[in-house]
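We emphasize that the prediction below concerns an isolated chain of 397 residues; any contacts that depend on oligomerization or on bound cofactors are therefore not represented. The input was used exactly as deposited, without trimming of termini.
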Amino acid sequence: MHHRIVIVGGGTAGISVAARLRRAGEEDVALVEPASEHYYQPLWTLVGGGVSDLARSRRKESAVMPKGVRWVQDAAVELDPDQHFVATASGARIGYDVLILCPGLELAWELVPGLSEAMATPFAASNYAAELAPKNAELVRRFRGGEAVFAAPGSPIKCPGAPQKATYLACDYWQRTGRLANMQVTYATGAGGIFGVPEFARVLERVVERYGIQTRFANELVEVDPDSREATFEIVGPDGKTRETLGYDLLHVAPPQRAPTFVRDSELSGQNPFGWVPVDRHRLVHARYPEVYSLGDVCDAPTSKTGAAIRRQAPVVVANVLATLSGQEPTARYNGYAACPFTTARGKMVLAEFDYSLAPHPTFPFIDTQRERYDMWLLKRYGLPAYYWNIMLRGLG
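Result of the prediction step, given as a token string:
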């Protein structure tokens, strides 16, 4: 098999790019993706918050695959950029002129001892897995009091604001039902602060204060004991690293995340512990292989790993791929735009938009998105999913 363009990954990035390439007239496009179902994962925050159903986030992969794209429903297991081919689990070798690498990332539960085992108990859940988000909603609904711990790694993860959203939606529910006073809620993260953009950090700090959440920064979850219901954190301080253990009655964790194994084991992987693919942060072309492009969660572009980032990356990749195929210099540029829609309560959302400068980058004229708004909540719950299924995945915007 040989194709002019091969895309590895049929998630948000892969489908969006494939649709744009077809609209640009490219006829020889293959997409390698083993999954039979496609998820709109940003909705899992609301699923875990008890305000949406998992079924609303799921469609058949065949329903979103652009017409005219050859779907290779198989798993990539090897990448050889020197010989220009992708190998799959079934033994196929797919050659390419240009490779677009966007397989997303994998949840590395095993990097925290005891974390997988904890997820199997009735005291822990995560909005980062389809089977665990509904469980989180049920745990929050049934929780009557005690120690609630929400943990997130300091290393890059998809939708880095999601662990905060889980915390805020849970606290909002407990406050509405008169239970919050009976709880000690802790948000612990390996990151150094609540958010990297000061204008939005100030808003989120007020939300934390409103709910009485105890925040612990530079606290990395390193072990969970599901039998004794204890979570151990490594704390980075001025005198070095120490460890502290917190008991919990409810635990929500965003697990560590990294590039898939076949990416980490390839020449396309970067010199970093998570295997992110090194790219020119503006043109999104591979640092060493000019016929390879990467976007989405797996690339090392220094911005948040969000669907909003992919929305701006996709047209840049398509323009530059077409330039490469025609023998021209790729000149389209991505400015690092990303967005984090922080659901701070049922009916309230702060839309944090920013770029590489870490300055606010608002795209809604005449609307102050630096405060909690009901219209932004409607955007999160109804507008963005409709946009995703009907416009973004069809290569229209």
